């Protein structure tokens, strides 16, 4: 920093002297109406350039660098590199690295599924686990607190010198939850089997840092075990279920085609509610999702004609763009649902086969005031032989909470198509739709 300041001071000093001399000469020339001789300008430029070079050499350390390079010149050689081979080598190294990480996750998933499958819920289960907040804490009499047994922590440079236990994981429970709630205790009990997988993963790949398991019940198992410190109010606000990685993993990316009935029977309030429903559905989509909106009567009407036959990423800009186009919809004619269904199935099929989109869950959502047919032939055509399309009908008729849970179950399963029919026969349709894709 001092070198730079000295360089700047010297530069501006020389520049000021040069500028003063130039102005003085210019005044003399203008007063006598004579031109500045070219030789004089060259002299000034040479002098100015020489000073700048001298100052730069003095304060930049370039001569010292040259000297150092000379000392090692005999040990340095220039080799021609094949750029293509270098890129291939780098790509292979990255592939191997990501493969190791994905294999570590796969082993954890398999162990968690197996342990959960074998466990039978016991409401009276008593189990002392290592609570990340309470470990190594003692009461006034010097005894360890409940759930706060001795937990050996040793600073480890691989984990930024934080005190950790590389033999065990521990569990964090949000402050607003009861540490010994039966659901928590049972979950912690069966997930204890992940400890050996955590350790095995770390032994296989020492470059791994944190490994963890976030439960829908709210507890968070972390390896290596570490002590959590509450804030000044004695609160730990962290809840794994609110983290972006948990939300994205739980909901999974989706490809969604939204079909909107704009036949004559949808005039007035029903079309208004339909538009609001679509807007609410868009609110549930995230950056990892892809979608399109098709209105139909006797013909298909893409809400955005420029995006005919494809899906777009559900980022904020695209969703707002589609909302603006929703206002242009109007109702008339007869609803020909069969052509809309064929189009939707074809879009999803093409998008999935080309490897575009989320490559995960797919859904067709139909917003209408009633369908006159079950369209079994269409479902037989696109749903055979794998039967990947689950049909959830009459979403807002009868018991809406049951239908919502069915949709959530369907969307939580990867590589599963869902066909949802939203009948506009309830006033709270738009509010309830917000729960569909969460």
TrEMBL record:
Gene Ontology CC annotation, any one: voltage-gated calcium channel complex
Subcellular location: Membrane
Keywords: Calcium, Calcium channel, Calcium transport, Glycoprotein, Ion channel, Ion transport, Membrane, Signal, Transmembrane, Transmembrane helix, Transport, Voltage-gated channel
PROSITE patterns listed in its UniProt record: VWFA
Top-level lineage group: Eukaryota
Organism of origin: Chrysemys picta bellii
Similarity-based family: Belongs to the calcium channel subunit alpha-2/delta family.
Membrane spanning stretches: 7-27
Protein name: VWFA domain-containing protein
Domain VWFA: 255-370
Record GO terms (molecular function): voltage-gated calcium channel activity
Membrane topology: Single-pass type I membrane protein
Main location: membrane
